[in-house]
Amino acid sequence: MLETGEDYREAVLSGQWWEKRRFTGCDFTGADLSGLRTRGCTFDDCVFTRADLSRSRHDASAFRSCTFDRTVLAESRWTACSLLGSSFDECGFGGIALTECDLSLASLAKARLRRLGLSGLRLREANLMEADLTGADLRGSDLTGARLQGAKFEGADLRGARLDANALVQAALRGAEVDVETAIAFAAAQGLVIR
C-alpha cells in the first residue's frame, strides 16, 4: 500500500516494526522514530527534519531523495539500504553503522563522520565537501566522482577505496592509510612523473 503526502509531523512511532510499506512525499518532521525497524520499505522524497531515528534498524529499505536535516541518527543500523540522492544537514551520526549501503548522489557536506565504519559503501558522486572523515574506515568504498573539496581524511583507512584524480587533489589526505595503487594515483594526480 502506498502512502502519499501523509503528515506524520511530531508523531510518536518509536519501537514500531514496518515491513514493505511505501511512502512518497510524507513529512516526518519532529517525529519520534527511535527504535523503529524497517524491512523492504520505500521512502521517496520524504522529510525527516529534526526526527529522532536513534537506535533504529533498517534492512533492505530505500530512502531516496529524502531530507535529513538536524536528524538524530545515533546508534542506528542500516544494512543493504539505498540512500540515493538524500541530503544530510547537521545530523547526529554518532555510532551509526552503514553496511553495503548506496549513498550515491547523497549530500553529506560538512558532515561529522569521524571514526565511523563506512567500508564498502557506494558514495559515487556524493557531496562530501568539507566533511570530517578523520579516522573513518572507508576500505573498499566507491568514491568515484565524489566532491571532496575541503574533506578531511587524516588517519582514515582508504585501502581499496576507489577515488578518481579529482578527489585525490581536492581532499586533505595527509595521514590517510592507502594501498600502493592509490599512492601511485595520488602521485600522478599531483603531477609527478612515475617511471
TrEMBL record:
PANTHER family: BTB_POZ DOMAIN-CONTAINING PROTEIN KCTD9. Gene3D superfamilies: E3 ubiquitin-protein ligase SopA (2.160.20.80). This is Pentapeptide repeat-containing protein. Pfam families: Pentapeptide, Pentapeptide_4. It comes from Amycolatopsis plumensis.
